[in-house]
């Protein structure tokens, strides 16, 4: 499908693995020049960057901004504009997780999760909006979670951060509505990413269950389809929101969760 995005420029945070990597790849295959971001082995990141660039025949760059550092986030946005000439799409995807009862929740983990999952999106949007306003068009897409709409136990920081993303998304959408910019959030259910696989082990410890029991009775228990959400299902919605077809979708929290939040 041609989404009419060829030649546009996107930043996808947390795109060296998991959902972010899949979204960045989908944008590249749609003809978008992409700035990757995230931590990991530098050799592996460069290998993946080069492969994406060659397969999609677009420019793919990498910026190693630390999502806990506002100056580095602002520099990443400036880097995209400087190196690629514009910025059309910002996908705030970076995220981390920690599972623990509230009374045992480490303070440093709370601070880290709020910084990476919520505050980094604020800094990215704050830096990107002036560029998009000058262009007369832009797409801000926040990767939230079903946990932006409902809660689960032992995830105080993550749920708080994702609920914060919902508020940020709606507020920004109202502010930029007449500037040719939209701001929306995609709310996935469980996707089988490295983050979710680590949650299975953490949940098993927190609940005193086996990993197999967690998979059956905790993770997929929330999703009526009993299936993980697929990467391409998220990518399809993201590309729609980035395209002109999605121009009237603004301030929306869009669930892709197999019916989880319909319950």
Topology:
Elements: E1 9-12, H1 18-29, E2 33-37, H2 42-56, E3 60-63, H3 70-84, E4 89-92, H4 107-135, E5 138-143, H5 156-176, E6 181-188, H6 194-207, H7 211-219, H8 231-242, E7 253-256
Parallel strand pairs: 1-2, 1-4, 2-3, 4-5, 5-6, 6-7
Helix pairs in contact: 1-8, 3-4, 4-5, 6-7
Descriptive report:
This is D-xylose 1-dehydrogenase. Keywords: Oxidoreductase. One of its GO terms (molecular function) is 3-hydroxybutyrate dehydrogenase activity. Its EC number is 1.1.1.175. Belongs to the short-chain dehydrogenases/reductases (SDR) family. This protein has 263 residues and is of the alpha/beta class. It has one domain: NAD(P)-binding Rossmann-like Domain (Rossmann fold, 3-Layer(aba) Sandwich), CATH 3.40.50. The chain has 8 helices and 7 strands. It has a 7-stranded parallel sheet, sandwiched between helices. Strand 4, helix 4 and strand 5 form a beta-alpha-beta unit. The protein is globular and about 50 Å long. 44% of the residues are buried. The model has no long low-confidence stretch (mean pLDDT 96).
CATH architecture: 3-Layer(aba) Sandwich
Instruction: Determine and state the CATH class.
Output: Alpha Beta
The whole-number mean of residue pLDDT values reads 96
What is the makeup of the main sheet? 7 strands, parallel
End-to-end CA span: 33 Å
What is the strand tally? Answer: 7
SS summary, helix count: 8
- What is the SS-derived class? alpha/beta
Mass-distribution shape: globular
Number of domains: 1
CATH structural fold name: Rossmann fold
Element-by-element helix/strand order: EHEHEHEHEHEHHHE
């Amino acid at each position: 499908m041609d989404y009419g995005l060829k030649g546009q420029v996107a930043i996808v945070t947390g795109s060296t693995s998991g959902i972010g990597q899949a979204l960045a790849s989908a944008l590249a295959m749609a003809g978008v020049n992409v700035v990757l971001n995230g931590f990991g082995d530098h050799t592996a990141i460069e290998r993946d960057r080069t492969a994406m660039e060659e397969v999609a025949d677009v420019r793919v760059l990498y910026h190693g901004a630390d999502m806990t550092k506002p100056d580095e986030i602002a520099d990443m946005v400036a880097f995209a504009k400087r190196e690629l000439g514009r910025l059309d799409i910002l996908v705030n995807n970076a995220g981390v997780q920690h599972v623990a009862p509230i009374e045992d929740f480490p303070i440093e983990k709370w601070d880290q999760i709020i910084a990476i999952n919520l505050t980094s999106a604020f800094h990215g949007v704050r830096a990107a909006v002036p560029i998009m306003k000058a262009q007369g068009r832009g797409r801000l897409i926040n990767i939230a979670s079903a946990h932006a709409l409902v809660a689960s136990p032992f995830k105080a920081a993550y749920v708080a951060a994702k609920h914060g993303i919902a508020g940020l998304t709606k507020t920004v959408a109202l502010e930029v509505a007449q500037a040719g910019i939209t701001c929306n959030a995609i709310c996935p259910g469980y996707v089988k990413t490295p983050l979710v696989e680590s949650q299975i082990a953490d949940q098993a410890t927190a609940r005193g269950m086996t990993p197999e029991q967690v998979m059956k009775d905790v993770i997929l228990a929330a999703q009526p389809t009993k299936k993980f959400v697929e990467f391409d299902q998220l990518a399809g919605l993201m590309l729609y929101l980035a395209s002109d077809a999605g121009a009237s979708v603004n301030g929306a929290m869009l669930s892709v969760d197999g019916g989880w939040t319909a319950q």
